[in-house]
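Summary of Year 1 activities. Much of the first year was spent building the evaluation harness for sequence design. The harness presents a backbone, in tokenized form, and records the residue chosen at every position. We chose the following record to illustrate the format because it has been used consistently in internal testing since the harness was completed.
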């Protein structure tokens, strides 16, 4: 079930000139896979070249390779390198998105 993304706070409102983590495992993320994808794109967009963002996704959608990798590669192509890091103790997943030129 999808809801209006306008009602959900942004994952970040700043450009990150360092490596950082984006929390995409709140209850609103569990209910809306499209929101996870949209906010993951936003997180990568707001990460400067040479840095990475750890995308921490909710367990409800399963392994992010099945729904997140393709949309990110479609948007960013060779500019983003995706690496699966681990499954969190809470059940979520961590994917490192490294941004290059």
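For this record, the design step produced the sequence shown next.
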């Amino acid at each position: 079930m999808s809801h209006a993304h306008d009602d959900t706070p942004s994952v970040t409102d700043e450009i990150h000139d360092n490596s950082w983590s984006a929390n995409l495992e709140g209850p609103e993320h569990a209910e809306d896979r499209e929101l996870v994808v949209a906010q993951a794109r936003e997180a990568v967009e707001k990460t400067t070249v040479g840095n990475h963002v750890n995308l921490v996704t909710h367990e409800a959608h399963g392994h992010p390779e099945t729904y997140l990798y393709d949309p990110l590669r479609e948007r960013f192509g060779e500019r983003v390198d995706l690496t699966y890091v681990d499954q969190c103790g809470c059940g979520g997943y961590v994917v490192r998105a490294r941004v290059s030129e």
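The first strand starts at residue 20 and ends at 24. Quantitative recovery figures across the full test set are reported in Table 2.
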